């Protein structure tokens, strides 16, 4: 495995929790300011290093895909906020459209290919309530390594972080070609 792709500063659980609070505050701010749904975009990166060359490349690809998809759908974007911390890269898109339409776009991007599988695009409605895949009768996300439900594998820690990072490395190397 190419360590250069995954080198970075390890984060603590406390930093993850503090960042979660900061993310929620920024989401509330955008919802109040624009009164429109938002897409909260992060990278699925296992392990304690969230900010690295792999996550930077994936983030750039995800932002590009999301901007293109919103533009193709003629959706006006009020604001895009980018956040970079050791806990990872995040983007917040406030968009003038229906939250369900945004979730469909986000899921299409996530399900597009192996790279999309590494994106996490959550959609919050104007009232701050997340729109789930199941609310739109969309299939659950599959694990990167097996055919099971990704949430179940993640919660049970079914796969070792090294196994997941190896698969992510394959995807990132392929994406660079």
Structure keywords:
177 residues; Alpha-Beta Plaits; 5 strands; alpha+beta; single chain; five-stranded antiparallel beta sheet; globular
Task: Write a brief structural summary.
This protein is an alpha+beta fold.
Order of helices and strands: HHEHEEHEEHH
By CATH, the architecture is named: 2-Layer Sandwich
Spatially, the strands of the biggest sheet line up as: 2-3-1-4-5
- CATH superfamily descriptor: ACT domain
Arithmetic mean pLDDT: 94
**What is the rounded distance between the termini?**
17 Å
Record field, number of beta strands: 5
Topology-level CATH name: Alpha-Beta Plaits
Question: What is the C-level CATH assignment?
Answer: Alpha Beta
**Main sheet characteristics:** 5 strands, antiparallel
* Residues in helices, as a percent range: 40-55%
Number of domains: 1
Number of helices: 6
Low-confidence stretches: none
Query: What is the SS-derived class?
Result: alpha+beta
Beta-strand level of the residues, as a percent range?
Answer: 15-25%
Describe this protein's structure.
The model has no long low-confidence stretch (mean pLDDT 94). 27% of the residues are buried. Helix 3 crosses helix 4. The chain is built from six helices and five strands; from the N terminus they run H-H-E-H-E-E-H-E-E-H-H. The protein is of the alpha+beta class. A hairpin with a 2-residue loop joins strand 2 and strand 3. The chain has a five-stranded antiparallel beta sheet, sandwiched between helices. It has a single domain, classed as Alpha-Beta Plaits (2-Layer Sandwich).
């Amino acid at each position: 495995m190419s360590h250069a792709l995954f080198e970075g500063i390890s984060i603590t659980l406390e930093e993850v929790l503090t960042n979660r609070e900061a993310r929620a505050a920024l989401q509330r701010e955008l919802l109040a300011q624009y009164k429109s749904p938002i897409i909260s975009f992060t990278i699925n990166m296992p392990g304690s290093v969230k900010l690295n060359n792999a996550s930077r490349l994936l983030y750039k690809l995800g932002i590009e895909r999301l901007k293109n998809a919103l533009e193709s759908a003629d959706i006006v974007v009020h604001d895009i906020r980018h956040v970079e911390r050791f806990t990872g890269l995040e983007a917040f898109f406030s968009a003038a459209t229906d939250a369900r339409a945004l979730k469909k776009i986000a899921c299409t991007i996530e399900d597009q290919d192996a790279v999309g599988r590494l994106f996490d695009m959550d959609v919050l409605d104007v009232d701050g309530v997340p729109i789930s895949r199941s609310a739109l009768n969309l299939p659950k996300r599959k694990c990167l390594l097996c055919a099971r439900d990704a949430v179940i594998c993640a919660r049970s820690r079914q796969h070792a972080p090294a196994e997941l990072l190896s698969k992510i490395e394959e995807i990132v190397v392929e994406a660079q070609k």
